Amino acid sequence: MPPKSGRSSGHPSAYKSLQETIKWVDLVIEVLDARAPLSSRHPNAHEIFGHKPRLVVLSKEDLADMAKLNEWIPIMTVQDAAAEMPAASLSLSLKTQKNRDKILHVALKLTEAKRSALAKKGLLPRPMRAVVVGMPNVGKSSLINWLIGKSKAKVANKPGVTRGPQWVRVHPQIELLDTPGFLPPASFSEDVRLKLSLLNLIPETTYDAEEVARHGLNLLKKVYPSMVEQYMPGCELELASLEDIATIRHFLTHGGKLDTARAASTFLTDLRNGRLGKITLDRAPQVL
Ligand SMILES: Nc1nc2c(ncn2[C@@H]2O[C@H](COP(=O)(O)OP(=O)(O)O)[C@@H](O)[C@H]2O)c(=O)[nH]1
Ligand SMILES: [Mg+2]
User: Fold this and answer.
1) Binding site membership of 136 for ligand 1 (Cβ less than 6 Å)
2) What's domain 11-177's superfamily in CATH?
3) Residue 59 CA: which ligand is closest?
4) Where are the alpha helices (DSSP H) in 83-189?
5) pLDDT for 189-198, tens place per residue?
Protein backbone atom coordinates (compact mmCIF):
# COMPACT_ATOMS: atom_id res chain seq x y z
CA MET A 1 0.00 0.00 0.00
CA PRO A 2 1.21 3.52 -0.70
CA PRO A 3 2.03 5.38 2.52
CA LYS A 4 -0.89 7.51 3.65
CA SER A 5 1.20 10.18 5.28
CA GLY A 6 4.72 11.50 5.15
CA ARG A 7 5.63 9.71 8.33
CA SER A 8 6.31 6.30 6.85
CA SER A 9 8.34 7.58 3.90
CA GLY A 10 10.91 10.30 3.34
CA HIS A 11 9.17 11.17 0.09
CA PRO A 12 5.43 11.19 0.74
CA SER A 13 4.71 12.67 -2.68
CA ALA A 14 6.76 10.12 -4.58
CA TYR A 15 3.92 7.65 -5.03
CA LYS A 16 1.54 10.43 -5.96
CA SER A 17 3.72 12.07 -8.55
CA LEU A 18 4.66 8.73 -10.08
CA GLN A 19 1.06 7.62 -10.21
CA GLU A 20 0.15 10.93 -11.79
CA THR A 21 2.78 10.35 -14.48
CA ILE A 22 1.71 6.78 -15.03
CA LYS A 23 -1.88 7.90 -15.52
CA TRP A 24 -0.71 9.77 -18.61
CA VAL A 25 1.18 6.98 -20.27
CA ASP A 26 0.20 4.06 -22.47
CA LEU A 27 3.33 2.06 -21.73
CA VAL A 28 5.66 1.66 -18.77
CA ILE A 29 9.25 0.78 -19.61
CA GLU A 30 10.66 -0.83 -16.48
CA VAL A 31 14.46 -0.91 -16.39
CA LEU A 32 16.18 -3.61 -14.34
CA ASP A 33 19.85 -4.46 -14.02
CA ALA A 34 20.54 -7.72 -15.85
CA ARG A 35 23.03 -8.64 -13.11
CA ALA A 36 20.20 -8.69 -10.55
CA PRO A 37 16.86 -8.90 -12.36
CA LEU A 38 14.88 -9.56 -9.21
CA SER A 39 16.80 -7.55 -6.63
CA SER A 40 16.80 -4.44 -8.82
CA ARG A 41 13.01 -4.50 -9.17
CA HIS A 42 11.11 -2.18 -6.86
CA PRO A 43 9.31 -4.29 -4.23
CA ASN A 44 6.00 -2.60 -5.13
CA ALA A 45 6.51 -2.68 -8.89
CA HIS A 46 3.39 -4.63 -9.69
CA GLU A 47 1.20 -2.53 -7.48
CA ILE A 48 2.64 0.69 -8.89
CA PHE A 49 2.39 -0.05 -12.61
CA GLY A 50 0.64 -3.37 -12.95
CA HIS A 51 -2.36 -1.78 -14.64
CA LYS A 52 -0.37 -0.56 -17.64
CA PRO A 53 1.23 -2.47 -20.49
CA ARG A 54 4.82 -3.03 -19.47
CA LEU A 55 8.07 -3.48 -21.30
CA VAL A 56 10.77 -4.89 -19.04
CA VAL A 57 14.26 -3.92 -20.17
CA LEU A 58 17.17 -5.76 -18.58
CA SER A 59 20.04 -3.37 -19.08
CA LYS A 60 23.81 -3.99 -18.88
CA GLU A 61 23.55 -7.26 -20.76
CA ASP A 62 27.25 -6.80 -21.61
CA LEU A 63 28.10 -7.30 -17.92
CA ALA A 64 25.62 -10.12 -17.23
CA ASP A 65 25.75 -13.89 -17.27
CA MET A 66 23.75 -14.70 -20.40
CA ALA A 67 22.98 -18.27 -19.37
CA LYS A 68 21.24 -17.07 -16.22
CA LEU A 69 19.76 -14.06 -17.94
CA ASN A 70 18.09 -16.28 -20.51
CA GLU A 71 16.35 -18.07 -17.66
CA TRP A 72 15.14 -14.77 -16.25
CA ILE A 73 13.83 -13.15 -19.42
CA PRO A 74 10.67 -15.28 -19.81
CA ILE A 75 9.98 -15.13 -16.06
CA MET A 76 10.09 -11.37 -15.65
CA THR A 77 6.73 -10.80 -17.28
CA VAL A 78 4.73 -13.65 -15.80
CA GLN A 79 3.28 -11.58 -12.99
CA ASP A 80 2.59 -8.69 -15.33
CA ALA A 81 0.67 -10.94 -17.66
CA ALA A 82 -1.34 -12.11 -14.64
CA ALA A 83 -2.64 -8.55 -14.39
CA GLU A 84 -3.99 -9.17 -17.90
CA MET A 85 -1.86 -6.44 -19.32
CA PRO A 86 0.40 -7.10 -22.27
CA ALA A 87 3.99 -7.44 -21.14
CA ALA A 88 7.31 -8.35 -22.70
CA SER A 89 10.89 -8.44 -21.55
CA LEU A 90 14.22 -8.25 -23.31
CA SER A 91 17.83 -7.62 -22.43
CA LEU A 92 20.24 -5.24 -24.05
CA SER A 93 23.44 -3.32 -23.69
CA LEU A 94 23.15 0.43 -23.83
CA LYS A 95 26.78 0.55 -24.88
CA THR A 96 25.78 -0.40 -28.43
CA GLN A 97 23.02 0.89 -30.67
CA LYS A 98 21.88 -2.64 -31.46
CA ASN A 99 18.24 -3.54 -30.74
CA ARG A 100 16.78 -0.04 -30.86
CA ASP A 101 14.36 -1.09 -33.60
CA LYS A 102 13.50 -4.21 -31.66
CA ILE A 103 12.52 -2.22 -28.57
CA LEU A 104 10.35 0.12 -30.61
CA HIS A 105 8.74 -2.83 -32.34
CA VAL A 106 7.91 -4.48 -29.02
CA ALA A 107 6.62 -1.16 -27.65
CA LEU A 108 4.26 -0.90 -30.62
CA LYS A 109 3.03 -4.43 -30.14
CA LEU A 110 2.37 -3.87 -26.44
CA THR A 111 0.25 -0.81 -27.20
CA GLU A 112 -1.62 -2.33 -30.13
CA ALA A 113 -4.79 -2.92 -28.11
CA LYS A 114 -4.77 0.66 -26.87
CA ARG A 115 -4.37 2.05 -30.36
CA SER A 116 -7.18 0.00 -31.78
CA ALA A 117 -9.41 0.94 -28.81
CA LEU A 118 -8.78 4.62 -29.57
CA ALA A 119 -9.53 4.04 -33.23
CA LYS A 120 -12.79 2.24 -32.36
CA LYS A 121 -13.88 5.24 -30.32
CA GLY A 122 -13.36 7.30 -33.45
CA LEU A 123 -10.49 9.24 -31.88
CA LEU A 124 -7.69 10.53 -34.05
CA PRO A 125 -4.64 8.32 -33.91
CA ARG A 126 -2.02 9.73 -31.57
CA PRO A 127 1.46 8.52 -30.68
CA MET A 128 1.64 6.17 -27.72
CA ARG A 129 3.24 7.71 -24.65
CA ALA A 130 5.89 5.86 -22.69
CA VAL A 131 7.79 6.54 -19.47
CA VAL A 132 10.99 4.90 -18.25
CA VAL A 133 11.00 3.82 -14.60
CA GLY A 134 13.40 1.94 -12.38
CA MET A 135 15.62 2.09 -9.34
CA PRO A 136 18.69 4.35 -9.18
CA ASN A 137 21.60 3.50 -11.47
CA VAL A 138 19.88 0.72 -13.39
CA GLY A 139 20.33 2.67 -16.63
CA LYS A 140 17.19 4.79 -17.04
CA SER A 141 18.92 7.94 -18.30
CA SER A 142 21.12 5.84 -20.56
CA LEU A 143 18.06 4.15 -22.02
CA ILE A 144 16.26 7.45 -22.53
CA ASN A 145 19.28 8.97 -24.30
CA TRP A 146 19.76 5.78 -26.26
CA LEU A 147 16.16 5.88 -27.48
CA ILE A 148 16.09 9.61 -28.11
CA GLY A 149 19.46 9.61 -29.85
CA LYS A 150 19.97 12.60 -32.10
CA SER A 151 16.62 14.24 -31.45
CA LYS A 152 17.71 14.94 -27.87
CA ALA A 153 20.71 16.93 -29.09
CA LYS A 154 18.42 19.02 -31.26
CA VAL A 155 16.30 20.08 -28.31
CA ALA A 156 19.31 20.79 -26.10
CA ASN A 157 20.94 22.95 -28.79
CA LYS A 158 18.20 25.57 -28.74
CA PRO A 159 19.68 28.44 -26.75
CA GLY A 160 17.83 29.91 -23.83
CA VAL A 161 15.36 27.07 -23.52
CA THR A 162 14.72 26.07 -19.96
CA ARG A 163 12.05 23.48 -19.72
CA GLY A 164 10.42 20.85 -17.59
CA PRO A 165 9.89 17.25 -18.64
CA GLN A 166 9.02 16.91 -22.31
CA TRP A 167 7.69 14.32 -24.64
CA VAL A 168 10.14 13.37 -27.33
CA ARG A 169 9.09 11.53 -30.48
CA VAL A 170 11.30 8.43 -30.72
CA HIS A 171 9.23 6.78 -33.46
CA PRO A 172 6.35 8.13 -35.59
CA GLN A 173 3.98 6.37 -33.20
CA ILE A 174 5.83 6.55 -29.88
CA GLU A 175 6.58 9.47 -27.60
CA LEU A 176 8.88 9.16 -24.62
CA LEU A 177 9.04 11.30 -21.51
CA ASP A 178 12.56 12.71 -21.42
CA THR A 179 12.93 12.21 -17.65
CA PRO A 180 12.47 8.93 -15.79
CA GLY A 181 9.62 8.26 -13.41
CA PHE A 182 10.79 8.66 -9.84
CA LEU A 183 10.19 5.52 -7.78
CA PRO A 184 9.48 5.88 -4.07
CA PRO A 185 12.14 4.68 -1.62
CA ALA A 186 11.88 1.06 -0.55
CA SER A 187 13.29 -1.13 2.16
CA PHE A 188 15.14 -4.29 1.24
CA SER A 189 16.11 -7.57 2.81
CA GLU A 190 19.77 -8.06 3.80
CA ASP A 191 20.39 -10.26 0.79
CA VAL A 192 18.96 -7.74 -1.65
CA ARG A 193 20.82 -4.88 0.02
CA LEU A 194 24.08 -6.74 -0.40
CA LYS A 195 23.50 -7.34 -4.10
CA LEU A 196 22.40 -3.76 -4.70
CA SER A 197 25.48 -2.45 -2.88
CA LEU A 198 27.78 -4.80 -4.75
CA LEU A 199 26.40 -3.62 -8.08
CA ASN A 200 26.48 0.05 -7.11
CA LEU A 201 22.70 0.39 -7.23
CA ILE A 202 22.35 2.12 -3.87
CA PRO A 203 24.32 5.15 -2.65
CA GLU A 204 27.77 4.36 -1.27
CA THR A 205 27.01 6.48 1.77
CA THR A 206 24.46 3.89 2.94
CA TYR A 207 26.86 1.01 3.48
CA ASP A 208 30.36 0.09 4.59
CA ALA A 209 32.38 -0.73 1.47
CA GLU A 210 34.72 -3.12 3.27
CA GLU A 211 31.87 -5.08 4.79
CA VAL A 212 30.04 -5.27 1.46
CA ALA A 213 33.24 -6.39 -0.29
CA ARG A 214 33.77 -9.17 2.30
CA HIS A 215 30.22 -10.44 1.92
CA GLY A 216 30.45 -10.04 -1.83
CA LEU A 217 33.62 -12.08 -2.02
CA ASN A 218 31.93 -14.84 -0.04
CA LEU A 219 28.89 -14.73 -2.30
CA LEU A 220 31.09 -14.94 -5.38
CA LYS A 221 32.99 -17.92 -3.99
CA LYS A 222 29.71 -19.80 -3.94
CA VAL A 223 28.20 -18.56 -7.19
CA TYR A 224 31.25 -18.08 -9.40
CA PRO A 225 34.17 -19.89 -7.70
CA SER A 226 36.32 -19.99 -10.82
CA MET A 227 36.17 -16.20 -11.11
CA VAL A 228 37.54 -15.84 -7.60
CA GLU A 229 40.28 -18.39 -8.32
CA GLN A 230 41.36 -16.48 -11.40
CA TYR A 231 41.19 -13.14 -9.64
CA MET A 232 43.24 -14.34 -6.71
CA PRO A 233 45.80 -16.77 -8.12
CA GLY A 234 47.46 -19.01 -5.58
CA CYS A 235 44.82 -18.52 -2.88
CA GLU A 236 42.84 -21.36 -1.45
CA LEU A 237 39.25 -20.64 -2.45
CA GLU A 238 37.71 -21.36 0.95
CA LEU A 239 40.02 -18.93 2.71
CA ALA A 240 40.33 -16.22 0.06
CA SER A 241 39.87 -12.83 1.71
CA LEU A 242 40.39 -9.10 1.29
CA GLU A 243 43.70 -9.57 3.10
CA ASP A 244 44.77 -11.86 0.27
CA ILE A 245 43.83 -9.28 -2.34
CA ALA A 246 45.90 -6.70 -0.43
CA THR A 247 48.81 -9.15 -0.21
CA ILE A 248 48.72 -10.10 -3.90
CA ARG A 249 48.63 -6.47 -4.95
CA HIS A 250 51.03 -5.14 -2.33
CA PHE A 251 48.42 -2.76 -0.89
CA LEU A 252 49.96 -1.48 2.35
CA THR A 253 48.97 1.37 4.65
CA HIS A 254 51.54 3.97 5.72
CA GLY A 255 51.97 1.98 8.87
CA GLY A 256 52.93 -1.08 6.81
CA LYS A 257 49.73 -3.02 7.47
CA LEU A 258 47.62 -4.69 4.77
CA ASP A 259 45.39 -2.01 3.27
CA THR A 260 42.06 -3.86 3.24
CA ALA A 261 40.11 -0.68 2.51
CA ARG A 262 41.96 -0.32 -0.77
CA ALA A 263 41.55 -4.03 -1.48
CA ALA A 264 37.80 -3.67 -0.91
CA SER A 265 37.48 -0.69 -3.19
CA THR A 266 39.55 -2.36 -5.92
CA PHE A 267 37.53 -5.55 -5.68
CA LEU A 268 34.22 -3.66 -5.89
CA THR A 269 35.37 -1.61 -8.87
CA ASP A 270 36.62 -4.69 -10.70
CA LEU A 271 33.43 -6.62 -9.96
CA ARG A 272 31.22 -3.75 -11.14
CA ASN A 273 33.21 -3.23 -14.33
CA GLY A 274 33.03 -6.89 -15.25
CA ARG A 275 36.74 -7.50 -14.72
CA LEU A 276 36.03 -10.66 -12.75
CA GLY A 277 33.63 -11.86 -15.43
CA LYS A 278 30.00 -11.59 -16.44
CA ILE A 279 27.73 -12.09 -13.46
CA THR A 280 24.06 -12.41 -12.61
CA LEU A 281 23.60 -12.70 -8.87
CA ASP A 282 19.89 -13.53 -8.63
CA ARG A 283 18.98 -17.14 -9.22
CA ALA A 284 15.93 -17.75 -11.36
CA PRO A 285 13.30 -20.00 -9.77
CA GLN A 286 13.39 -23.50 -11.20
CA VAL A 287 9.64 -23.87 -11.50
CA LEU A 288 7.38 -21.18 -12.95
N1 LIG B 1 28.19 -1.62 -19.25
C2 LIG B 1 27.00 -1.00 -19.25
N3 LIG B 1 26.80 0.07 -18.46
C4 LIG B 1 25.60 0.67 -18.48
C5 LIG B 1 24.54 0.21 -19.30
N6 LIG B 1 23.46 1.00 -19.05
C7 LIG B 1 23.84 1.91 -18.15
N8 LIG B 1 25.14 1.72 -17.80
C9 LIG B 1 25.92 2.50 -16.81
O10 LIG B 1 25.23 2.45 -15.57
C11 LIG B 1 25.39 3.67 -14.86
C12 LIG B 1 24.04 4.23 -14.47
O13 LIG B 1 23.32 4.57 -15.63
P14 LIG B 1 22.21 5.72 -15.65
O15 LIG B 1 21.61 5.72 -17.00
O16 LIG B 1 22.77 7.01 -15.15
O17 LIG B 1 21.19 5.13 -14.58
P18 LIG B 1 19.89 5.85 -13.93
O19 LIG B 1 20.30 6.31 -12.58
O20 LIG B 1 18.87 4.75 -13.84
O21 LIG B 1 19.45 6.95 -14.83
C22 LIG B 1 26.16 4.58 -15.80
O23 LIG B 1 27.52 4.56 -15.41
C24 LIG B 1 25.97 3.96 -17.17
O25 LIG B 1 27.04 4.22 -18.02
C26 LIG B 1 24.77 -0.94 -20.12
O27 LIG B 1 23.90 -1.44 -20.84
N28 LIG B 1 26.02 -1.49 -20.05
MG1 LIG C 1 19.43 9.07 -14.30
Assistant:
1) yes
2) P-loop containing nucleotide triphosphate hydrolases (3.40.50.300)
3) 1
4) 100-110, 112-120, 140-148, 150-157
5) 999 999 999 9
